[in-house]
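Archive entry: two folds, one per protein. Generate the first.
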Amino acid sequence: MKKYHGIIPAFYACYDEKGEINPGTVRDFASYLVEKGVQGLYVGGSSGECIYHSVEERKMVLENVMAVARGKIRIIAHVACNNTKDSMSLASHAESLGVDAIASIPPIYFHLPEPAIAKYWNDISSAAPNTDFVIYNIPQLAGVSLTIPLFKEMLKNPRVVAVKNSSMPTQDIQMFKMYGGKDFTVFNGPDEQFVSGRVIGADGGIGGTYAALVNLFLKMDDAVEKNQIELARDIQNAVDAIIYKMCEAKGNLYAVLKEVIRRRTGLYLGSVRAPLYPLVPSDEEIIMETISMIDDAENTFL
């Protein structure tokens, strides 16, 4: 079995009632996912609301995840900030905690040339020289695509072992696998196409809805491994319907996901940090429908 594979939920930001990071809840949430049997956690990414956290807050979250999950599952720490200095600080800190890998999107806002992006990533990697590096390709949000020339340049860095591919075309997964080689890891990013991503070659997935739908994604991945493609497709269709329902809410998707987790497990993860939009009263019906759909899917497929 490859080092990086399977279901790796993107870890959610855990707040108290005042909207501050709650270390105890971070540990409880990490323990919950470890006990569910996931293969890893992706900490400090989009789902973790990283761009709205200070460097010290991001370090606090990772420290508390590692306190309960180190050595039990793979931990990938997303360390990108919109400047190299802070990113390197997070990378060095992550390595000191013993994470399995660090990850980074490209710098956002300014449209930098590819040599500048490569230098940014390599500088971050140099701050964690003994730790694997994962490129996070999410062009729809970062505004920059991982091109094959840039990918080939990054492959010169021996620490670059994987791509978290959140672009929509599954063809991108196939291309990164082809140019990366048989031992290179590619993660499927878009949750709505997990099965198609796995079938075309992704080794596993990192996703924002996994934590709230963890049983279904674990079953889907198992079906793919066993070549039960019809079953996997049926679960994917059910999962997609759930995701589409959650996206109907006026509140941010992560606020919906956290509320679903609270009602189904008792874990209170807080809301979302401004300027992300919290739940509003009219979202109540959507929350209830979502929970019913999850229960129905689990009763059908598990």
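Generate the second and append.
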Amino acid sequence: MPANLSPEYMAAEEQFRGARTQAEKVQALERMLATIPKHKGTEKLQADIKRRLSQARKESQKKGEAHAVPFYLVRKEGAGQVVLLGPPNAGKSQLLASLTHARPEVAEFPFTTRLPLPGMMNYENVQIQLVDLPPLSPDFTEPWMPQAIRGADAGILVVDTNDPEVLDSIEFIRARLAEWRLPAPKLLAANKSDRPGAGDNFTALSGLYGGAFRLIAVSALQGTNLDGFARAVFEALELVRVYTKPPGKKAEFHTPYVLHRGETVQDAARHVHKDFAEHLKFARLYRASGDRDGQMVERSYVVQDGDILEFHL
């Protein structure tokens, strides 16, 4: 037995021991295979896990068990799911820890993250799910990464602003995503902006990639510009918040209805209740700036972030 098995692998092995169904065994074995260190000393163990995984999958199909959700697919929560992509040591885990209540392992050595780890980030009155993924590197990339990225609503590229190989890393990740037929991220977070020389490096990155990404400088460790990062993520998801009010009463701003950019009053009514959408005659639009009388709008009006709607049936 190799002496350098990771805590993630040991947890997966414990999960396997406690599995009661074949589907649970499949999920645990998949995690074991994903987290086992890949070197010559574990070749026999890897082969044994693959053999057991193959057998468990066959047994699961024979017994007609419900297929277990793969461990790398994180159930979506909040207004949108955003995966953090980047090379080793870019600071993705620190970014997740600084913005959410998640507690990933943060270390200076590469490949600390081996499994997807989600956390909920607040942007004003909306929650957005961030998922830290293992790094994308020419040295090693987890084989399940394309599926994990494809299931998300958006991806954010996180890099170390001061990494001498940052340009090679960006180009490698763009090429790998294209190879997987996945869209390139819209947002690039240039992390570790608190370090000496980071300002000049960010300017250089902006000059090279300003046409390909929206760039934002942050420091996950120091907390610099994390509010700006949250706002940029919200905008990258192309979401808008809509509030409602009953006639003659004030709007409630704590829990907005979250729609996609381009959706209409009709869509907003459907979010509230399907009967609203079916019987809606028109809506009265108010602005948070203090518009007292409102403006009558048709069902086809495209809503904007912060709109207040009063539905009339």
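Annotation attached to the second fold: The longest helix spans residues 43-62. The chain has a mean pLDDT of 87.
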